[in-house]
Amino acid sequence: MLTATLLTLSLAVTGTAAPALSEPHKKDIAMRLVSSAENSSLDWKAQYGYIEDIKDERGYTAGIIGFCSGTGDMLELVELYAKRKPGNVLAKYLPALRKVDGTDSHAGLDPTFTKDWKTAAKDPVFQRAQNDERDRVYFDPAVNRAEKDGLRALGQFVYYDAMVMHGPGGDKLSFGGIRKAALAKAKSPAQGGDEVAYLNAFLDARKAAMKAEEAHEDTTRVDTMQRVFLRNGNLDLEPPLKWKVYGDSYTIKS
Of residues 23, 28, 38, 217, which has the active-site annotation? Predict the structure, then answer.
């Protein structure tokens, strides 16, 4: 009888737990939120072919989460694509991508790389490669770290968006440095701290990192998106969601 009662209680708790950001619908919401900031569109699946130099000293920025020719993640993506589909339209750029890694140079890429990227973006194999690299480098590490810190879906998204923009490194302008600065101001929920207070500390540290880089100094994706959800107490990132980025208004109804 006691066992049955415990099982009932366990099922009740499980049934009321809000889904993590890795739940498919929540993950799609996260991608639409990032796309609103990165591409001024909720249609994140239309961004496989996006590519431009946004003058942030990272070379070309492209794809669904902004893989960069100057930061190594674009190189790893194209290497994965070449492994899965040898001789693809981007494979010939691998030597150039290796040479420009760590710089903002377009040497060996211009003038045809952007056109060939858009061609590759129509290939389901390349689309899957983008999805997989997004998960391996950014999404899964962000969600796993957030869960260890005791954060719910909003906090998991806050980590993910920061990792996409700043990279997963440990210096003061990367995700690791931002998190370190936040922990110096507030305890995480896993440490017994208040979740809202900790997320405010993280967003403060995130804004400081953004303002330190000219290309990222507009902090509206924090001020009029993430901070709005936090002020509303929407720690589970439940629709409907309303926010603004760079003055544009967006809504996710369900």
Answer: 38
